[in-house]
Design goal:
The chain is α/β, with parallel strands linked by helices. It contains 11 helices and 12 strands. It is globular.
Amino acid sequence: MNINQLDLNLLIILKQLLEEKHVSNTALTLGISQPSISRSLAKLRVIFDDPLLIRMSGGYELTPKAESIYHDLNSILSNVELLVNKQDFDPLTCEATIKVFGLPPQMNLLVKAIIRAFRREAPNMTLDIDTSPKPQFADLLKGDVHFVVTGHQPSVAEDKLYRIPLFEREFVLLMSKTHHLANTQLTTSLLSQCHFGQISVQGEKSLSIAPCFEALGFDNISTPIRLKNFDNIGTITEHSDVIFYVPNHFADELCQHYPLISRSAPNELKINQSQVCLYWHQRYHNDPVCKWFRSLINEQLFNN
């Protein structure tokens, strides 16, 4: 392969093609016409001497060579980004984009703490926030985001991830002020007869505290409401007898806008996800933009 045939734009298109496995979707994501993407794919096939994407009955599939290339692309593009950002970094003039993923309860707290300072110190930067429901660490490992804010812990690649603790949280029971248990001393037995809302952002099949109930002999906890995100929790709770088990700061925020009440769960129902951390991959550990962002978080959360 003649490397002179390859430019950075082609690598960016290739990365998106291998992720989307779809020419039209790649064109839409990158804001480039479909014919241009098709021409780029044809050129890439010549450069790599491989079809890269093979049309199957259900769409395109990656060739083995494309799979191998994909694993290296994120590292290559990250190194290019690092090379560019190393040059005379100044947050006041920098126009970089920082991508952060986290679910709304955690993200709301972080944004509230840093957004004023972020806009003041880096007026030309973009903070790209993703709160869509999905596996917590998938985009971080792929190199699609710079940071993840979560109370979960990674199950893979821990040796390649860094983290700093941000804040503590406690999970509480959120219910309507008119709920029949709103002013009653809560026990596991009473709660086992109630109806719960399940928030399944990673495809979870059961209520987060169901194992706690089961350990005490209470099976088949009623979950008539299942959500894939944190939207509509306030409305559902206000107008029904459904209870949600959510982080305390999120519950406090909802209680300010809806006639709801948050109650501490009995000790035997408490789950251990108290520490929320900021995670980043080693590929961005020395990136000056990301180093600055970490220092901004540290200053706003711990030095104010």
